[in-house]
Amino acid sequence: MTTFIIRRIATIIPTLIFVSLLIFGLQQLLPGDPAMILAGEERDPTVIAHLRETMHLDQPFPVRYLYWLRGVLHGDLGESLRLQQPVRGLIADKLPVTLELACIAIVIALVIGIPAGVVSAVKRGTAWDYGANVVALWGLSTPNFWLGIMLILLFSVTLGWLPASGYVSPFEDWRANLASMIMPAFVLGNAIAAVLMRHTRSAMLQVLSSDYVRTARAKGVLERDVVLKHALRNALIPIITLGALEFGTLLSGAVLTEQVFTIPGFGKLIVDAVFNRDYAVVQGVVLFTATAYIVLNLVADVAYAIVNPRIRVQ
Amino acid sequence: MLPSTAVGEESAAGPAQTARAVPRSKVLRRLLRRPAASIGLAVIAGFVVVALGASVVAPYDPIATSFATVRKAPSVAHWFGTDEIGRDVLSRIVYGARASLLAGVVSVLISISVGVPIGLLAGYAGGMTDMLISRVTDALLACPFLILAIALAAFLGPSLTNAMIAIGISATPVFIRLTRGTTLAVKAEDFVLAARAIGNAPWRVAIRHVLPNIVPPLLVQATLAIAAAVIAEASLSFLGLGQQPPQPSWGSMLNTAKNYIDNSPWMAIWPGASIFLLVLSFNVVGDGLRDALDPRYS
Questions:
Q1: Fewest C-beta in 10 Å: which of A1, A89, A268, B76?
Q2: pTM
């Protein structure tokens, strides 16, 4: 197992190097002098001089990259020009809000997606199956920012049950926190529920046609137990990997969802940074997201190898 | 999301090995036999006709303001109502279809024209070339689709063209990976080995023998990727990074509409419904195409 983990870690190192090169390379897309652009509209000569010095703009690209990488490896993601704060601190401030949103969204996705996938597979070819597939297609095709606006129209404007926007910390008032998070989390979980449903259905169909399930049925095991204890337990194994892969979807979705519901999280941080041309924040957020995604994939692979020893051998 | 899942490689990879088992003449017939896919194709065709004939179909100029008709509810004069500066919502939706379809098709063309040759090279050449391309692809795939598109659009500057480039680049790694995977499968087939054995140059074998046989899964992926690209363009325009005002785009219309949701809900309902309908149609056609290309679903 240790060899597997070491080998797996070794494979992510080149990926991380390419990710860092890609993100640093984004600066090259800026037309003209990066220091002039990064200094914002005021073009303060002091700021420009400071940027030239800190970004080593008089040096060639590889040297600048190595300087930047050294900073990143020491936890220095640069400084927000607008907020005059380290990017690392900004990410640390905003991340808990987005993580809370993502956790509630995942719970909603699991509660909808897995039962829908199981029912769809067990009742294959019936109205239940078609119904579940329609729900999945709905989830995959609905733009989450539109769904958010429609939910605000229904639950906030028309019924007045939930707040249309804003965020309350769970440490201040957990009820108000839940009320402010339930709509955005549903919006975010909706698309992931559709993906989970499709994967669960496909995995269940495969498992339900396997020999050991046929044997269980032949032994007279109750159909409910065949489905829940024999089939579902094995069908759920690939969902571990899927959970990690959906992390990217969650963060992408959070960008728009947080914008619609005015939630001060990670997604809103990158959008605000884009509009304020705060490029260090944009780079920091993308780097953090990509690294988190790679590490989560590694964790998922290791977890998968623990529950499925054949992976280790391969 | 994004429908990043809609651009997932598993979605199209299925028919890779079996594609040649279904004669191409049968594919369209099989596709049209599926009611959902047929309706989806008809809806897409409808949107294409509306987008191409926007100047004829739209009842009003999409950017003409009228302070006498600010935020009017749907009526006989304005079927979908008017917006915050009196512009006809239906006309803006009709013209917005152009931006959405253009972004969907052009960005996927960018992804294909970059991703397919690179994927073919990686799969066919193998060795260090494959390793290097695969690592770069992994790096691109590690950045969530929309976040990468936002970052690229932010650095390139906000415009529809840059949004299309950003979406195209962000969707490219999926095509690289899919092309590489299917190339690896096809290059081990007897007919490819035979083509090499008679002395064809490697590039000729790749282009004349491998490429035509990996088209079906790419076609499925392209259809699903257009759906994802339409949502991505709407998302970027919603954030202000796509089509710039006053030119109409469904995403930017929704961005404005959210500020008037309490008393002018029609401003949000129709653009969102249009995105949903177009994306749903592409997803349904993509699913239908995948089934039509797979002999197991005959």
A1: B76
A2: 0.87
Alpha-carbon distance of A73 to A68, in angstroms, equals 9
Which value does ipTM take for this structure? 0.86
Q: According to the model, what pLDDT value does residue B295 have?
A: 64
Question: Are A152 and A237 in contact, with CB atoms under 8 Å apart?
Answer: no
DSSP assignment, residue A84? -
Q: From B142, which residue of chain A is nearest by alpha-carbon distance?
A: A290
pLDDT tens digits for range A207-230: 888 888 889 889 888 888 888 888
Min Cα separation A225/chain B (Å)? 30
Cα separations (Å) of B96 from B67, B90, B233, B242?
Answer: 22, 9, 11, 12
Residue A196 CB partners (closer than 8 Å, separation 6+)? A109, A110, A112, A113, A114, A117, A239, A242, A246
Residues B130-151, mean pLDDT to the nearest whole number: 87
pLDDT at B296: 62
Which of A249, A259, A271 has its CB closest to that of B1?
A249
pLDDT at A29 over 80: no
Q: Residue A138's closest chain B neighbor by CA? A: B280
CB within 8 Å of chain A, chain B residues 110-169: 135-136, 138-140, 142-148, 150-157
Residue partners of B162: CB distance under 8 A and separation at least 6: B152, B153, B156, B241
